[in-house]
Amino acid sequence: MPASRKTIAVVFGAVGGLSDVGKMAVLQLLDGASSVDLRSVLMFHSSERPSLTAANRPIVTTDVTDEALQERVAAAVADANPAMVEVGSDDAQETLEGAFAGVDAIVVAIGNRQPWKPRTLAPSMVDIREAAVVCKVPRLVVLSSFGLSGDPLPWKWIRYGWALMLSTVSRSAWHDLVAMEAAAQDTGGSIDVLIVRPTGLTPKLSAIGEWRLFRSRADLPIAYGIAKQDVAKFMVQEAVTPTLHNAVVTIGGVPWAYDDAEEVPDNVLSH
Q: How far, in Å, CA of 121 to CA of 113, rounded?
């Protein structure tokens, strides 16, 4: 018998590197998942409301150097015609519940890790979680960041530098990320939650369809840089066919796997 179709919801943000991954998850599902139905939600801060086309579709940009990919992502998001949710609005949870009804899994990639940007991860995640619980969604795949407490990556200079930035100029981002993870996992055991912590989401890297998952030092080496498309592909795969359950995993690039010397990640974390 043919496998039953699944419905996957993707919640993505308007701006930020984490949000770019969500936009690419939309592209991934529209491009290559013929057995999956897509629901999409664009969550935005009031200061980052996207412009709309004449057909009332959102206009989004993506921070990658590949201009053709930028155009494909923008077209995919417009085609998906996502539900629009302003963070903190009175109808946010109601709109999310409408998008989540009957879905098999939700991919969440919203917000950013940059200094001086609006901090929306935690409040957005509370609304997403509450709507997911109401709709009895069984699976949640959430994008976060490496460098948080409990991250087992070795203390090489690149991780030290990132952790230092999160604890100083990006301290508000660190608090937002930690609170978001806590909110995502606070489901009373009713949802299978996977937290995905990417290393460097590098705009210049092209997708290679591979990645390295890191849970202990036995998984080293791991490249610091990884293409946003590859993170999106991993998250979509884990939403459609889960392999990691109620877990937190770091994802990075495969060392020395890039054909173009200019695309080799600059840093490799090793023993």
A: 10
- DSSP letter for 136, please: T
Write the CA distances from 2 to 102, 238, 241, integer angstroms.
20, 20, 15
Sign of CA dihedral 258, 259, 265, 266: positive
Instruction: Note whether 217 and 164 are within 8 A (CB).
Output: no
Alpha-carbon Rg for the chain, nearest whole angstrom, is: 17
Question: In terms of Cα–Cα distance, which of 251, 245, 260 is closest to 228?
Answer: 251
Structural contact between residues 50 and 58, judged by C-beta atoms closer than 8 angstroms: yes
Using CA atoms, how far apart are residues 45 and 119, in angstroms rounded to an integer?
A: 9
pLDDT, tens digit (0-9, with 9 covering 90-100), for 78-135 = 999 999 999 999 999 999 999 999 999 999 999 876 666 777 899 999 999 999 999 9
Nearest CA to 86 out of 44, 125, 120 is that of 44
Alpha helices (H) in the chain, listed in sequence order? 17-32, 67-80, 92-100, 121-134, 157-167, 171-185, 228-240
CA distances to 124, 153, 214 from 217, rounded to whole Å, are: 33, 7, 8
Q: For residues 199-238, b (16+ Cβ closer than 10 Å) or e, as one string?
A: bbbbeebbbbeebbebeeeeebebbbbbbbbbbbbbbbeb
Classify 49 as helix, strand or coil. Answer: coil
- The b/e string for 23-32 (b: 16+ C-beta within 10 A; e otherwise) is bbbbbbbbee
For residue 252, the one-letter residue type is G
Task: From 200, 215, 211, 217, select the one nearest 267 (Cα to Cα).
Answer: 200
Q: What is the pLDDT of residues 145-204, one digit of tens each?
A: 887 766 666 555 455 555 666 566 567 777 889 899 999 999 999 999 999 999 889 899
